[in-house]
């Protein structure tokens, strides 16, 4: 039998659904990064958070490094912004009582695009 | 299996997604994740069945409009689709214009043949002579004859200055657009209707649709206006409240409330958050001033209202000089 993937271990699409509002509410009130997320089109923005979480959960979103670069270059993000997102990701998963080792795995996935997101 | 797209017939390959089929036939489509997550590629089904997986995660109001993600759609039968921004153009005529307050008028337009809408959706009104176009919400309901709009006189507003003298003139309508309409599937849910100025128009339609459907849950309508004279439907609303025990009314006016019950000068958003239904329970329609809508939507979301239950069509003011 195949090993379950990270996405399966976290609970798949249902887990993303459970996480997305917790995560989006956190970033909306995080003074370090809320201005990137507080847009007129909250529906669209929420979908983006969902895409991000699906990616971090090791799910079926096929983003390339180039997509990540193109999507973030205009924001001129810094290490502090990236750390804030990672913290909110971690605390969201904690709130959902995800085991530490799975949180670490998701953080590793999210960290893998750091250089692309920060455009370096 | 056949895929009909904008009047053209394409043969779907075995196991092929709608997006792949369109691209194979040279259609230019926007897409990004191609796995049913980012919702960039949405199209609308006009006939045929959409597999459930192609609407996974979409807002209910979008699903009801037939929107789906072609990147994960493998149809099980023939399907007819169009681009999600496709809207029809209809011919109409200005039937009458009536003053409702010093600022607001009620404009009646003849019902175009074949025009289907839900009360609270909006249209783009086009003046044929020069193509001048403005967006207005529909305050009336299907089956009521003329389409009714609430139009606010804008200083220097070309359309709002033209309309009072336009009775009998031909116009065109694009639409209907937007998702500010009543949801019939949850008759017990507490409803929040909050709007400023002529943002009341779609709320009035949603309210009357809810009452017509016999909505059983509490309904609280909040109207914000520049002054007591601009609560332009206050009397009609009070008559509705007298007949429907589940309807509550509040209003916020700048300046003196003149002792009118339910009216105060407290800011509208503050009234909604302290006197309105519990955010975790409610379904909301927010309309009018963009800063008000944006601020209140965010506050409701942070207080626990799912975004899917907050209806607010973005109001985009016309660009300067247009």
Give helix and strand order of chain A, one letter per element, not per position.
HHHHHHHH
Uncertain residue segments of chain A = none
What oligomeric state is this? Answer: heterodimer
- The number of distinct helices of chain A, counting runs of at least 4 residues, comes to 8
Tally of helical segments of chain B: 7
Alpha-beta content class of chain A: mainly alpha
What is the arithmetic mean of pLDDT of chain B? 92
Strand content of chain B: 25-35%
Poorly predicted runs of chain B: none
How would you portray this structure in words?
The complex is a heterodimer of chains A (120) and B (322). The N and C termini of chain A lie far apart (40 Å). The longest helix of chain A has 17 residues, at 12-28. Chain A is an all-alpha fold. Chain A has helices at residues 6-10, 12-28, 34-37, 42-56, 65-72, 79-95, 100-111, 114-117. Chain A contains eight helices and no strands. The mean pLDDT of chain A is 90. In chain A, 68% of the residues lie in helices and 0% in strands. In chain A, helix 2 (12-28) packs across helix 4 (42-56), helix 2 crosses helix 6 (79-95) and helix 6 (79-95) packs antiparallel against helix 7 (100-111). Chain B is α/β, with parallel strands linked by helices and 322 residues long. Chain B is built from seven helices and 17 strands. In chain B, the strands form three sheets. In chain B, strands 9-8-11-6-7-10 form a six-stranded antiparallel beta sheet. In chain B, strands 15-14-13-12-16-17 form a six-stranded parallel beta sheet, sandwiched between helices. In chain B, strands 2-1-5-3-4 form a five-stranded mixed beta sheet. In chain B, strand 12, helix 4 (200-212) and strand 13 (219-225) form a beta-alpha-beta unit. The N and C termini of chain B lie far apart (46 Å). The model of chain B has no long low-confidence stretch (mean pLDDT 92). Chain A binds chain B through residues 13, 17, 21, 25, 28-29, 38, 40-44, 46-48, 50-51, 54, 59-63, 67, and chain B through 32-39, 56-57, 59, 290, 294, 297-298, 301-302, 306-307, 314.
């Amino acid at each position: 039998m195949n090993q379950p993937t990270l996405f399966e271990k976290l609970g798949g699409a249902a887990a993303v659904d459970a996480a997305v509002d917790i995560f989006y509410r956190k970033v909306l009130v995080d003074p370090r990064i809320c201005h990137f997320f507080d847009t007129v089109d909250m529906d669209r923005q929420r979908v983006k958070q969902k895409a991000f979480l699906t990616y971090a959960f090791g799910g079926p979103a096929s983003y390339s490094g180039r997509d990540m670069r193109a999507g973030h270059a205009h924001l001129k993000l810094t290490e502090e912004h990236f750390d804030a997102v990672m913290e909110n990701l971690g605390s969201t998963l904690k709130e959902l009582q995800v085991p530490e080792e799975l949180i670490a795995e998701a953080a590793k996935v999210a960290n893998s695009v750091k250089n692309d997101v920060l455009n370096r | 299996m056949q895929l009909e797209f904008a009047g053209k017939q394409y043969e779907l390959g075995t196991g092929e997604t709608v997006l792949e089929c369109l691209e194979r036939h040279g259609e230019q489509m926007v897409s990004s994740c191609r796995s049913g997550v980012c919702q960039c590629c949405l199209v609308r089904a006009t006939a045929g069945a959409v597999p459930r997986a192609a609407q996974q995660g979409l807002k209910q109001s979008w699903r009801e409009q037939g929107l789906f993600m072609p990147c994960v759609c493998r149809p099980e039968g023939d399907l007819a689709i169009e681009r999600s921004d496709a809207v029809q153009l209809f011919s109409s005529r200005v039937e009458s214009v009536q003053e409702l307050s010093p600022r607001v008028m009620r404009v009646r337009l003849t019902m175009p043949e074949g025009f289907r809408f839900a009360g609270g959706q909006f249209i783009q009104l086009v003046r044929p002579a020069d193509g001048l176009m403005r967006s207005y919400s529909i305050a009336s309901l299907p089956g009521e004859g003329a389409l009714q709009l609430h139009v606010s006189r804008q200083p220097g507003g070309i359309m709002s200055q033209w309309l009072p003298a336009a009775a009998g003139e031909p116009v065109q309508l694009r639409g209907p657009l937007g998702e500010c309409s009543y949801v019939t599937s949850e008759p017990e849910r507490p409803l929040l209707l909050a709007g400023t100025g002529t943002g009341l128009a779609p709320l009035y339609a949603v309210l009357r649709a809810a009452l017509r459907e016999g909505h059983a849950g509490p309904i609280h309508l909040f109207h914000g206006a520049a002054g007591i004279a601009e609560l332009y439907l206050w009397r009609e609303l009070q008559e509705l409240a007298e007949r429907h025990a589940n309807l509550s009314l509040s209003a916020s006016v700048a300046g003196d409330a003149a002792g009118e019950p339910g009216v105060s000068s407290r800011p509208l958003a503050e009234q909604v958050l302290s006197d309105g239904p519990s955010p975790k329970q409610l379904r909301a329609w927010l309309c009018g001033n963009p800063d008000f809508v944006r601020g209140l939507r965010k506050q409701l979301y942070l207080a626990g209202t799912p975004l899917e239950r907050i209806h607010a069509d973005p109001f985009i003011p016309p660009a300067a000089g247009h």
